[in-house]
Design brief:
EC 6.3.2.2; two-stranded antiparallel sheet; Creatine Kinase, Chain A, domain 2; 18 strands; ligase; disulfide bond
Length: about 450
């Protein structure tokens, strides 16, 4: 998230929080695709991490991008920590360890999404390459220890860094040493949101498997295909993971609000200052728990929007749905991830088929699949088959959905071609992580250094 929200409207009651989510309902002709991707900057000389400051640091890249694009700077305590397109059509932000993120504009087609991603990568390369900096498309930092990883000067990250070790064993790794590709998608009603939430929660482990791309940690194999997926199993289980209540046939906006109310907060912003609120839940905040702790210590709608952005379930509900299961990866994956989910969720026949395929899947079964995927990838078992076989059926549905959409580029091609990189994973029966591990044990000669050449943008 590039910029935290400031909306000073006071909250009168829980109904307003539910209505905040319901305001996301959009007619189908207004549905859009918002794609986000993160990448690790590194110095080509020595494959070292890039700090924030200095003539060849993250700040200098942001300043160069600001000059090139003309976007507005996002300032935190006097330091530039991101950029936002003046009309809200996209943003550039920093993750805690310097991961460079593009939060794309809400677009109508995957063709536009892919052009946007390619243009961004070309722009950032133009600024960074003269500094000797490139970017790595993986789901996990393959070389640098947590101590070696730079820390970005964002106030919310200082609060999270103090809090994470109190609630899990892997939260700092999540913050500083992982990257993802995400897509944000719309819904037209509460019922439509429910269907999409339930289908995408059930299929999120498959997304993790298909995009598994983080097999190295601290310069050696970590025994996993998606280290990032494993990290999310013990980051902060109060605010992340697979949400069982979402599997209910009656699940709705109010259920998500009730859950979110009882999750500890991270912060509130008052007069540009971030106040640590990790000791209370939002429900306690609404009951007046911070009245004497911070200026204007009663909750606002901006506080609620920021709180929703600090919840990390596998699929996050805001005024749209965020698909959060995939590792970061090469540029083709930036286009494939939104294509996969748009094909499944934005065509009625495809959504019907995906819902029928997954309707009998239970929470316990999906949780077991989620726990197996980080190590086993698409070979993970499910019932009497494997995720690879499930993937065959799901890819057919996604391809059908994209074909039914009929969104063609100027050359007459529809969006189905963006699934080709995932079709290759299913056809081979091996993930990107397994391909990297094979290279490590053969042509890379037991070194992870070649990954910085072969998986760099």
């Amino acid at each position: 998230m590039a910029r935290d929200t400031t909306d000073f409207r006071p909250i009168e009651g829980i109904d307003e929080l539910v209505e905040h989510l319901a305001e996301g309902n959009k007619p189908r002709d207004k549905w859009r695709i918002g794609t986000e991707h993160e990448k690790f900057p590194f110095y080509v000389d020595g494959n070292a991490p890039v700090p924030y400051g200095g003539e060849r640091g993250i700040r200098a890249i942001l300043e160069g991008m600001q000059q090139k694009l003309g976007w507005d700077p996002i300032i935190d305590d006097g330091r530039i920590i991101g950029l936002v397109e003046p009309t809200g059509q996209g943003a550039i932000s920093l993750e805690p360890g310097g991961q460079f993120e593009l939060s794309g504009a809400p677009l109508e087609t995957i063709h536009q999404t892919c052009r946007e991603g390619n243009a961004h990568l070309a722009q950032v390369r133009e600024i960074a390459e003269p500094m000797g900096i490139r970017f790595l498309g993986l789901g996990g930092s393959p070389k640098w220890s947590l101590a070696e990883t730079p820390k970005m000067p964002k106030s919310r990250y200082e609060i999270m860094t103090r809090y994470m070790p109190k609630v899990g064993t892997k939260g700092l790794d999540m913050m500083y040493r992982t990257c993802t590709i995400q897509v944000n998608l719309d819904f037209e009603s509460e019922a439509d949101m429910r269907r999409k939430m339930q289908v995408s929660l059930k299929l999120q482990p498959l997304s993790t498997a298909l995009f598994a791309n983080s097999p190295f940690t601290d310069s050696r194999p970590n025994g996993l295909q998606s280290w990032r997926g494993d990290i999310w199993r013990d980051t902060d289980n109060q605010r992340s993971g697979l949400l069982e209540f979402c599997f209910s046939p009656e699940f709705g906006f109010a259920d998500y609000v009730e859950w979110a109310l009882d999750v500890p907060m991270y912060f509130v912003i008052r007069d540009g200052h971030y106040h640590d609120m990790t000791h209370i839940t939002f429900r306690q905040f609404m009951a007046g728990a911070a009245r004497n702790e911070v200026p204007d210590g009663l909750p606002t709608m901006g506080d609620w929007a920021n709180h929703l952005s600090t919840l990390f379930p596998d699929v996050r509900l805001k005024r749209f749905l965020e698909m959060r299961g995939a590792d970061g990866g090469p540029w083709r994956r930036i286009c494939a991830l939104p294509a996969f989910w748009v094909g499944l969720l934005y065509d009625e026949a495809a959504l019907d088929a995906a819902e029928a395929l997954t309707s009998s899947w239970t929470y316990k079964e999906v949780l077991a699949m989620r726990n197996a995927v980080p190590e086993q990838g698409i070979s993970a078992p499910f019932r009497n088959t494997t995720l690879r076989e499930i993937a065959r059926d799901v890819m057919v549905i996604s391809r059908m959905g994209l074909k039914n959409r009929g969104r063609k580029n100027r050359d007459g091609y529809d969006e189905t071609s963006f699934l080709n990189t995932l079709d290759e994973v299913v056809a081979r029966g091996t993930t990107s992580a397994e391909e990297m591990l094979s290279a490590y044990h053969t042509r890379w000669g037991g070194s992870i250094e070649p990954v910085f050449m072969e998986y760099a943008y």
